[in-house]
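User: We ran a pulldown and think these components assemble together. Before we commit to crystallization trials, I'd like a predicted model of the whole complex to look at. Sequences follow.
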Amino acid sequence: MTSSSPTGGGPGRPSALAPEIADRLKRSADGLLPAIAQQYDTGEVLMLGWMDDEALHRTLTTGRCTYWSRSRGEYWVKGDTSGHFQWVKSVALDCDADTVLVKVDQVGAACHTGTRTCFDTDVLLADQ
Amino acid sequence: MTSSSPTGGGPGRPSALAPEIADRLKRSADGLLPAIAQQYDTGEVLMLGWMDDEALHRTLTTGRCTYWSRSRGEYWVKGDTSGHFQWVKSVALDCDADTVLVKVDQVGAACHTGTRTCFDTDVLLADQ
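Assistant: Here's a predicted model for the assembly, 256 residues in total across the polymer chains.
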């Protein structure tokens, strides 16, 4: 692990995220924030990923939603492998700066299983 | 801390959650899953809370969204203090069973700051 950069990197990874954002993030013990991806026009909740400071920085500046893969330990531009990009429309933090909401335009399926969202299959309680 | 119950309690807390659900949950190190609350008809993402097995069980069986408060270390029925209940309409797990999506009918403001959602104020990137 490298040390955090002076420009606001999360624990272990340097980042170019603006300090005025980085300074108020409330990260988990592993330096991450949950990031909800929502289809900007239909309102569908597509998936939840994780971002460190640099993933948030890249999401804000590249126009493509970028996560930190906890399983692979690397940055992950959604769509780089599948072509199912998430084009960023807007980004907001929640009231205590520990969660990210990214509104996106999802190309194709958000879920690696091929369904539109990651929440389509495992329904525990149906419409009440 | 008490030990987990044989019926599927998360680390440290007993739970009556059905074993067929509990057995496939992929919890964080502290035994929790992020839970996204979404307004069922408008699609607004209202907030993100955290659930352990028992909070999920209560959400599924009481009709009111129930979280585990990480800061207070106790169960938290949304609305018990504020009156801003979240009436549960549907509950789903994501494709790898580590995130919950609860569609609710939100009474009043979801956010403790008084805004409708927790994502209304801190916009990092506006509509592109």
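Residues 31-118 of chain A form a domain with the Ubiquitin-like (UB roll) fold (CATH 3.10.20.810). That may be worth checking against your pulldown data before setting up trials.

User: Thanks, that helps.
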